[in-house]
């Protein structure tokens, strides 16, 4: 469907995209993530033919975006972060204009315009001037123009910006429906949104692809260890003795809990080890009730920060000694 091969974009001495390569397969929703300045928008602009690459190629359905721009662009619908709207047109006038640009003719044009207005829930706004619409409705009009012509690939850059929570849910559902017949590339800073709708996630940092996998695959890949947080009714020394004796424990920290007479232990094990049952019975034998026991997993936000280097990873166990009431097995 889409092949990006050894893509490079330089602006003077600044390298925005650094020998980037990936493939997009049909029928999936791809999340395209990266911090500001990572090269996401530049890459999408090259993929849509808006700007030319310095080096490398983008092929869409076998058509090179530079050598065969018209054929390649027929396969793409694009919603940039700031929708390309003509403020003095009505919604319907604008969509007719876009349909003509896309060479949609006759009865098919009218039918498609009506259908995409229904899909994006802007039918009631058809005769309104675009400049009088709210930011959310302008975003919907931009989405409607991207869908017109029913391109095989739809690229959406921050499609839910300016929408209220109800509208965000509606647009997410629309994106899922579009994926039945279209391939979707979705760029968003709302990581929960990406996790909710995307089949695969690509993460770009400093112009390079640092990860490409399913949300579950990324979580599994980055969770090299499993972490438990347990609140125990009892003394620190007794809790430490019990935890030390559990096979499979790699590291642990123990501190005073916010509840009176309780301690909180954070225990790290190999990701393949599940010590919860052994831990529960070992503490019960020492008459130390477990008040809560939670398995902590890295969120998509944690994975994003770790892969893009936006934030230093926090150590789970403090190096030290007895002063910290902690162990390092």
Summarize the structure.
By secondary structure, the chain is an alpha/beta fold. The chain has helices at 40-47, 69-73, 91-101, 106-119, 135-147, 165-178, 191-197, 215-222, 236-244, 276-285, 300-308; strands at 2-11, 14-24, 29-33, 55-60, 63-64, 76-79, 153-157, 183-187, 200-205, 208-213, 225-233, 249-256, 262-270, 290-296, 326-327.
How are the SSEs placed, and which strands pair?
Layout (H helix, E strand, L loop, with lengths): L1 E10 L2 E11 L4 E5 L6 H8 L7 E6 L2 E2 L4 H5 L2 E4 L11 H11 L4 H14 L15 H13 L5 E5 L7 H14 L4 E5 L3 H7 L2 E6 L2 E6 L1 H8 L2 E9 L2 H9 L4 E8 L5 E9 L5 H10 L4 E7 L3 H9 L17 E2 L2
Parallel strand pairs: 3-8, 3-9, 6-7, 7-8
Antiparallel strand pairs: 1-2, 1-4, 4-5, 9-10, 11-13, 11-14, 12-13, 12-15
What do these coordinates show?
Helix 4 crosses helix 5 (135-147). The two termini are 50 Å apart. It is built from 11 helices and 15 strands. The chain is of the alpha/beta class and 329 residues long. The longest helix is centred in the middle third of the chain and has 14 residues, at 106-119. A 6-stranded mixed sheet has the order 6-7-8-3-9-10, sandwiched between helices. The protein has a 5-stranded antiparallel sheet with strand order 14-11-13-12-15, covered by helices on one side. A 4-stranded antiparallel sheet has the order 2-1-4-5. It folds into 2 domains: 2-220, Rossmann fold, CATH 3.40.50.300; 222-327, Alpha-Beta Plaits, CATH 3.30.70. The chain is 33% helix and 29% strand. The protein has helices spanning 40-47, 69-73, 91-101, 106-119, 135-147, 165-178, 191-197, 215-222, 236-244, 276-285, 300-308, and strands at residues 2-11, 14-24, 29-33, 55-60, 63-64, 76-79, 153-157, 183-187, 200-205, 208-213, 225-233, 249-256, 262-270, 290-296, 326-327.
